[in-house]
Amino acid sequence: MQNIKSMTRRGIVRHVGFVVAIFAATMLLSSLNRVVFILYNRALGAECSLGDFGLALLHGLKLDMSVAGYTAVIPLLISLATIWLADNKSIINVLRRVVMLYFCVVTLLFACVQCADIGMFGEWQSRIDSQIFIYSPREMMASLSFFHVIAAIAYISAMLVVGLWLYRLAVRRWFAPSITQTLSIRIATTSIMLLVAGVLFVAIRGGLTTATANVSKAYFSSNMFLNQTAVNPLFSLLDSLLSEESFDEYQFSSEEEAKATLNEIMQGSDMLNDRWLRTERPNIILLIVEGMGRTITDTKIGNESVTPNIECLAKEGIWFENLYASSFRTDRGTVATLSGFPAQPKMSIMKYPKRASHLAGIASSLLDAGYATRFFYGGDANFTNTRAYLYATGYQEVIDESSLSLDGHRSKWGYADDVVLEAAAEAILERMDSGVPCFETILTLSSHEPFEVPYTRLEDKTLNAFAFTDMVIGEFVERIRNSRHWDNTLIIIIPDHGYPYPSTVSSYSSTRHHIPMLWLGGAVAEGRIIESYAAQTDLAATLLAQLSLPHDNFPFSRNIASHDATHFGYWTFNNGFGIADSEGVTIYDCDNAQTIVSTTAEKEQEHLRYGKALLQSTFYVIETL
Known about the structure:
This protein is of the alpha/beta class and 625 residues long. The chain has two domains: 2-243, no CATH class; 268-523 and 537-565, Alkaline Phosphatase, subunit A (3-Layer(aba) Sandwich). Helix content is 49%, strand content 13%. The chain has helices at residues 2-40, 50-85, 89-124, 137-142, 146-174, 183-205, 224-230, 233-243, 255-266, 294-297, 308-314, 330-339, 353-356, 362-368, 386-392, 417-433, 461-481, 510-513, 539-546, 604-624, and strands spanning 283-289, 300-301, 304-305, 318-324, 372-377, 397-399, 410-411, 414-415, 438-443, 489-495, 514-520, 528-535, 569-573, 576-581, 584-589, 594-598. The strands form four sheets. The protein has an eight-stranded mixed sheet, sandwiched between helices. A four-stranded antiparallel sheet has the order 13-14-15-16, covered by helices on one side. A hairpin with a 2-residue loop joins strand 7 (410-411) and strand 8 (414-415).
């Protein structure tokens, strides 16, 4: 009996040890590659300290583990097979050769990808991705000097030697124990290995949080070189290959016609006919509220509003009556709000960090104007590469659940809005005391499914969650109002997107995308209602114009305060777009290439021309980023 237990332990240790050894070897190779990357591109990181690079190595482990998990999958499957074939030495020898051949291929692939990544980074300023495949080998070789070729051969050779030595060591030490195994031993070992497979799945996925592994997980700094250093090039390439989409789908007219129509749409946006603020350099707090569209803020239970605080505050500030969200997702709505960039019907530019990093940003413009910039979120800022996007577009600091330690309710998505906004208010007021103008952005999350909040005012779970966030917003505004900084503060409240309440609201309708926007604070000259039709993307140009700052790098953002601008709302859904102005609504389905809603026969063709030009031009810009 004791002998069986001993054999079982030895078998399990050998099989588990084999997978662990492969995982560890891959992690080590990734870290070694990162060190070479730093040394080769050291001029780009001249301002960084050893401590900074240490943090890059540490944060890089997140994506390294995902790559190591992928690498270990086939060895794990082969190891599982050997459990049941341990008695057949000839098959075991064949499998040993197969696994070594696999490591030869993997090591060569790793070495080539990492070498190309290191060499191209100085030119591309981003880690390798699927864009490399648009160049032929001849074109790539044409850019290489003799020194580059020799250095590349040396690096690949060194990686092959080190990599194959590590993997061969793992195979010799741990692969396929030559032990006669009983059925019970095999079943027990297989069970343990299936658990190991589950651990590998978690590593590949990037953990157990709502955010799966993505490039953003490695981002940790406002220094983009450090962030890029932390990114695993193999993960970057694999991720882009799996997510790359065609940008050629929306060709409604010639490029010249689309550009001419876009110029027509943007005409007059540089004018400022109405000034709404008392000062050109107020402290600015932007509250992006999860899902709080007009279907929520306009809803009443009995005679009581679901969002009484928003309703009350609207009477003292600037209320935008006819604003439309760009999309139905947070990642797309965030880009529309902060970069003035329209949402795409079937993709999210946030999933393309290399492209998204080149977008303009309100934060970047304000940073150049002397503002300190910061972003608060109670959840995981890695979700859909948000952290990468935020740092790239001008935020100096991103504070999320990983850097918060709060005593309060948590949902699936993160900390509840009450404790986050309380912590944010304290940090914001402390920064205001320093005298440096600040741009503070807060993204809420409690009004998101599953709508679990520490609050019970309304019976309807969905509406109650929105009521909770509304209450928290009211308390936050009062906290700022009661400070000495109120007179020089502008608070902007805008949703990331609308919400389909009631459930009968269609995903493409104007009702679904109709959202509120409210400007308030002591910096607002006087309360008013803005009736002009506008899009979420218009916040950037409108705000910067009020601050007398340029906004010409926001090609899709119009100044709502300009009387000469073309005023309409624009949104996209899967797979189409909608236009709304004072004369009606037109909604177009790209799948069927036909209008599905038209409430204005007179303006339908103009609406279609505008919408198609915006959609087509959006992808022209994406291709150039």
